[in-house]
Specification:
The protein is an alpha+beta fold. It is built from seven helices and 21 strands. The longest helix has 16 residues, at 198-213. The chain binds 2-OXO-4-methylpentanoic acid.
Length: 354
């Protein structure tokens, strides 16, 4: 256990960069706020955290993160309501998940009090970077890297836990079409697919760039052994609406335990929308697309929120999805955002006031 870090060392910037930022034209994850949170692990313990001006790091080229990818991260968002109050959404789940990811990657877990105190102090400093209005948020990226100078292939003895923040609007600009994976895989049984391990994401870049070249923004990954079951989209979990029923894959050790995903499953139950959490086959989705029963596909994730998919391809067969007036994607996005932006009741206690 840790002592509460009431002595977080804080050094502020002399001048904020905020006046140079056009908040109406944000490319996702390109602009960072004035400060960052840093906490080092050494001698078997997390040290006193610091908040300091956002700046480059000096890390030895032999640091294990560069050689073995011993690194994990999280994605969270802060929202501002009409009364200038700042809210996080289910942040305890992000803390739990980064520690699950860390555990799998042999990284020491990060104490909860450090996590919450660091986030709170950082967000208070950066409050002007959180813009009001639905669709505006501050994307928060906690991450941990192995810093020990040593290139034998074993876990490090020193780490850096950091939090950086980036003002955000939408993750995807424009329509999203997807390719169902036939050859490449994102994760295997017993692997790290459930974790937000950095390498999980890096390994998707090459196949995704091939998909891009064919006009698809994302791949929907299928199970590695048969490629018959639809799993997740890498940046998002994935939902299918067949008739009026929502289908999504169950969590397993290949699929990220998405916070937006589980919130949507709950919201669907609250709204008496039938949800089936079960394995979903490529064959049934193609068949439903042919018969017109497939009404929607959408992705759900922190960065992407709820993103409709306008079409897909599998084995050379291409399908376009209809544009619906009353889509589930719009319905759930509205419901979710009303909770996130403190517009509606929060029956499940998901909001966290900073
Ligand atoms: C998030 O939604 O926060 C993620 O971590 C996905 C990321 C690859 C942008």
């Amino acid at each position: 256990m840790s002592d509460l870090p009431n002595d977080i060392k804080i050094s502020k910037v002399s001048e904020s960069k905020i006046s140079n930022v056009d908040f109406n034209k944000l490319d996702f994850g390109k602009i960072f706020t004035d400060h960052m949170f840093v906490c080092d692990y050494k001698d078997g313990a997390w040290q006193t955290p610091e908040i300091m001006p956002y700046q480059p790091l000096t890390i030895a080229p032999s640091a294990r993160v560069f050689h073995y990818g011993q690194a994990v991260f999280e994605g969270m968002k802060a929202f501002k309501d009409e009364d200038d109050q700042i809210w996080l959404f289910r942040p305890e789940d992000n803390h739990d998940r980064i520690n699950k990811s860390s555990h799998r990657m042999a990284i020491p877990e990060f104490p909860k009090d450090f996590f919450f105190e660091g986030l709170t102090q950082l967000l208070h400093l950066e409050k002007d970077w959180i813009q009001k209005g639905k669709g505006n948020s501050l994307y928060i990226r906690p991450f941990v890297i192995a810093t020990e100078e040593a290139i034998s292939a074993s876990p490090a003895s020193t780490y850096k836990f950091m939090i950086i923040c980036s003002p955000a609007q939408s993750y995807y600009a424009g329509e999203v079409k997807v390719l169902f994976a036939e050859k490449f895989s994102r994760a295997a049984d017993g692997g790290v697919g459930f974790a937000k391990a950095a390498g999980n994401y890096g390994a998707q870049f090459y196949p995704t760039s091939l998909a891009h070249a064919k006009g698809y923004q994302q791949i929907i990954w299928t199970d590695a052994s048969t490629h018959e079951y639809l799993e997740e989209a890498g940046t998002m979990n994935i939902f299918f609406r067949v008739g009026d029923t929502l289908l999504t894959a169950p969590n397993n050790d290949r699929i990220l335990d998405g916070i937006t995903r589980k919130s949507l499953i709950q919201l669907a139950k609250d709204s008496n929308i039938k949800v089936e959490v079960r394995r979903v086959t490529v064959a049934e989705i193609k068949e439903a697309a042919k018969t017109g029963e497939l009404k929607e596909i959408f992705g759900a994730g922190t960065a992407a929120v709820i993103n409709p998919i306008s079409g897909f391809e599998h084995a050379g067969d291409k399908f376009d999805l209809p544009k619906l007036d009353n889509s589930y994607a719009t319905f759930f996005k509205e419901k979710l955002m009303n909770i996130q932006y403190n517009v509606s009741e929060d029956p499940h206690g998901w909001r966290y006031k900073v």
